[in-house]
Amino acid sequence: MPSPRALRRTNPITIALAALLTVGFLFFIFSSASDPAPPPPPTTKERLGSKDAASNPLSPPSLPFRKTSVLKQDGTQAPPPVVHYQMTNLTASADPVGNRETVLILTPMTRFYQGYWDNLLKLSYPHELISLGFITPKTREGNAATAALQEQINKVQSGSKGKRFASVTILRQDTEIPLQSQDEAERHKMENQKMRRAAMSKARNSLLFTTLGPTTSWVLWLDADIVETPASLIQDLAAHDKPVIVPNCFQRYYNDEKKAMDVRPYDFNSWIDSQTAQILAAKMDNDDILLEGYRELPTYRTLMAYMADSNQDLHAEVQLDGVGGTALLVKADVHRDGAMFPPFSFYHLIETEGFAKMASRLGWKSWGLPNYFVYHFNE
């Protein structure tokens, strides 16, 4: 015969379970209320200096490069930390050293020039605020350049702490190289320009998009064959507080007529546009590009290369419509806004000249220093 309902309700097992649940619930409530408040999230500076920071400080410190991860007590992998960056506090000012602004120096490299590396080490900008990025092609020459570069990097990064750079990134280019020979004469043939500069644009964009970090204030594009600059190059260019600024690139050579060393203009990609060039562009097909410095295609633009006057102010400024990339300082926000190096015809311009046009369309103007010189290697 079944037990009465009243007896089932007062079953000792039921009473014990109810009491246990009540005690557990009360313990959970009171222990949670007594727990201290969680600490505030670490600042960018604290996170970058902690053991949780990424191996590469150019990336958000979420441990993307580490081989091992922290494990929880149950043996499962702990999630990466959440990092907060106050991008509104990031500055790119006329006093980059005083404001401790980080600089990213980017160099596409096909050949390694010792003069380039020696000059890089002489830069007086604090090295702990400089990160380096390189991209080299997967060719025999590119392999040799990578090996030579890694050897020099190992020496510096294992040497005196004051001379070490904040980080170094080397990428290997995964796009085809249109020219097998990198000799100066072959590189500058007019018929090779569109495919060569399109490949250069892709390399620059890959390098930029991979290495630009949330703490980067300035990006200095420095070609691998620039072997002489003032030691204060970064400070001098940044002092003008321009979004895009380029010095004048010359080349030292032996003048047979003078029987002495001399200098001559090298980079003709920094210019002020002309009506003639605009008329030429208007008659071109959409995929055609205008090139500068070739007799076959006279544009009659005003070239900064021929505006140099050694008796004038070293820091005289001129606004430009096109820029070269041999030594080009850019506020990182210009790139963050979307200005990149078009590997296609962009208003009939390509690569660095196309970059200046794209930056202009985004509201950023380009400037040049006709009397401030950097020097290109002479083959």
UniProtKB/TrEMBL annotation:
Keywords: Glycosyltransferase, Golgi apparatus, Membrane, Signal-anchor, Transferase, Transmembrane, Transmembrane helix. It comes from the Eukaryota. Belongs to the ANP1/MMN9/VAN1 family. Residues 36-67 are annotated as: Disordered. One of its GO terms (molecular function) is alpha-1,6-mannosyltransferase activity. GO terms for biological process: cell wall mannoprotein biosynthetic process; protein N-linked glycosylation. This is Alpha-1,6 mannosyltransferase subunit. The keyword Membrane applies. GO terms for cellular component: mannan polymerase complex. It is a single-pass type II membrane protein. InterPro entries: Mannan_Polymerase_Subunit, Nucleotide-diphossugar_trans. It is found in: Golgi apparatus membrane. The keyword Transmembrane applies. Coiled coil: none annotated.
